[in-house]
Design brief:
- It contains 12 helices and 15 strands.
- The strands form 3 sheets. It has a 6-stranded mixed beta sheet with strand order 5-10-12-13-14-11. A 5-stranded mixed beta sheet has the order 1-4-3-2-15, with helices on both faces.
- By secondary structure, it is of the alpha/beta class.
- The chain folds into 3 domains: 118 residues, NIF3 (NGG1p interacting factor 3)-like (Udp-n-acetylmuramoylalanyl-d-glutamate--2,6- Diaminopimelate Ligase, Chain: A, domain 1, 3-Layer(aba) Sandwich); 105 residues, Udp-n-acetylmuramoylalanyl-d-glutamate--2,6- Diaminopimelate Ligase, Chain: A, domain 1 (3-Layer(aba) Sandwich); 104 residues, Alpha-Beta Plaits, CATH 3.30.70.
Length: 365
Amino acid sequence: MKIKDIVREIENIAPLSYQEDYDNAGLIIGNAEDEVTGILLSLDTTEEVVEEAIRQKMNLIIAHHPIIFKGLKKINGKNYVERTVIKAIQNNIAIYAAHTNLDNVLENGVNMKFARKLGLTGLEILQPKQDMLVKVVVFTPVKDADRIKDAIFESGGGGMGNYSECSFSVTGRGTFRPGENASPAVGEKNKREGIDEVRIEVIVPAAGAGRLIEAVKQVHPYEEMAYDILPLKNEDRETGSGVWGYLPEPMDTGQFLAMLKQSMALPLIKHTGYTGMVHKVAVCGGAGSFLIQAAMREKADAYVTSDLKYHEFFDAENRLLLCDIGHYESEISTLEIFYEVIKEKFPTFAVAFCRTSTNPIQYYQ
């Protein structure tokens, strides 16, 4: 198995096009054509993590946080990033990171895993993204419309929230004139032809439009398939920041904090003084202060995230229970996503959770 085979499965659920502009997800160190001897999963990549991979004879580290986040002008070992990169290259260890691209997906994403740890149901994106969807329009002879729709739906087109296989069709009259070198399925060379056609429209994530078009071309009768890909401003309810959902039953503040501490294996929780009942809960793994207002607009009773500053606790205005559980603690379950994705496709392949804790924060109790 090659690195690119593993990467393909991860990027099927978290395309690189979903990452934020400032991010550096993807294959950071290594050759995608190299064969994989084993995979080590870690939240971060440090020198100690690379050493663990070497000991276990694993040549691919899959992490959530990219080891190279900003540009490196020199690599001479003056800090932990440079030393980690040097050690990985010297020992032929590849490093791959799925960061904000994995944060920004609902299905199998960081925040869905987080929310399910708390038992939340009815999950939806807290702050959906725009410009992530396109409309694909395909023109086909009337007699082929059903099999074209089948190909579209099987390749991921036509999803809208909780609905699938959504499309719109209208009939019309298409014309074309095959050239001398054409091999027309209908009509004759150098003669204008007219035929009744169906215009089929579906919505699809922009990252999957190319794959959909290629799949439809395989079953389309025409030598030259006519199609359009049109950008949309619609919100994509499947991609974006944070997630919200409902607890099975409302809890008082004390019950919720106790459950949160146990479910996420927390040493402590920083929180506001909200004392109301908690039923609707929003979560965001990692630094999530930018979603405080979104959580309040959604009328969440609690918002759980990390890396909150002192004055940001005031922003909750005692309208919700604002909880800071720590960056590492909020994202460590991301490793389970990697494990499940890889094991589903490659059940016998060697995949291990890193035993080295990369949390740089310690707590004195």
